[in-house]
């Protein structure tokens, strides 16, 4: 599964410097992090709407949009996918209640 996300991360990186007129990813980078973050938020809301509507196909599509826009946001912030996956690995087997209690922020 992570191979798909790793390929997506590579594609996003390769399109970062592309012409914004011909690449959606490049156009997002050109508009800056606030626009990327807003787009991620929009997709998250659309995912919630699809979930509450119990629309499986729409939820699948919106979830893909969320992952895509999160990956663009991570790339813009210089956070590699491997760091996110390592954090998930670190949390594996830890109670969510205990993990949240240990957070400083």
Task: Annotate the secondary structure layout.
Layout: H1 2-15, H2 24-31, H3 33-52, H4 56-77, H5 81-91, H6 96-101
Helix pairs in contact: 1-4, 3-4
Keywords:
mainly alpha, Helix Hairpins, amino-acid biosynthesis, HisE, ATP-binding, phosphoribosyl-ATP diphosphatase activity, 105 residues, globular
Your description of this structure?
It is a single chain. The protein has helices at 2-15, 24-31, 33-52, 56-77, 81-91, 96-101. It is mainly alpha-helical. It has a single domain (2-79), classed as Helix Hairpins (Orthogonal Bundle), CATH 1.10.287.1080. Helix 1 (2-15) crosses helix 4 (56-77) and helix 3 (33-52) packs antiparallel against helix 4 (56-77). The radius of gyration is 16 Å and the shape is globular. The mean pLDDT is 93.
Count of alpha and pi helical runs: 6
Structural class: mainly alpha
Q: How many structural domains in the coordinates?
A: 1
Q: CATH H level: which superfamily?
A: MazG-like
User: Tell me about the biggest sheet?
Assistant: none
What fraction strand?
under 5%
CATH architecture name: Orthogonal Bundle
**Uncertain runs:** none
Average pLDDT value? 93
Do you know the CATH topology?
Answer: Helix Hairpins
Number of E strands: 0
User: Which radius of gyration do the C-alpha atoms yield?
Assistant: 16 Å
Subcellular location: Cytoplasm
Family: Belongs to the PRA-PH family.
Protein name: Phosphoribosyl-ATP pyrophosphatase
InterPro entries: HisE (IPR008179), PRib-ATP_PPHydrolase-like (IPR021130)
């Amino acid at each position: 599964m992570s191979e798909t996300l790793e390929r997506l991360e590579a594609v996003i990186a390769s399109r970062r410097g592309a012409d914004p007129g011909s690449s959606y990813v490049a156009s997002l980078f050109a508009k800056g992090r606030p626009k990327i973050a807003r787009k991620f938020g929009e997709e998250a809301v659309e995912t919630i709407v699809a979930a509450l509507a119990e629309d499986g196909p729409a939820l699948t599509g919106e979830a893909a949009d969320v992952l895509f826009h999160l990956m663009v946001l991570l790339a813009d912030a210089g956070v590699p996918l491997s760091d996110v996956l390592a954090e998930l690995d670190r949390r594996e087997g830890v109670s969510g209640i205990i993990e949240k209690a240990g957070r400083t922020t």
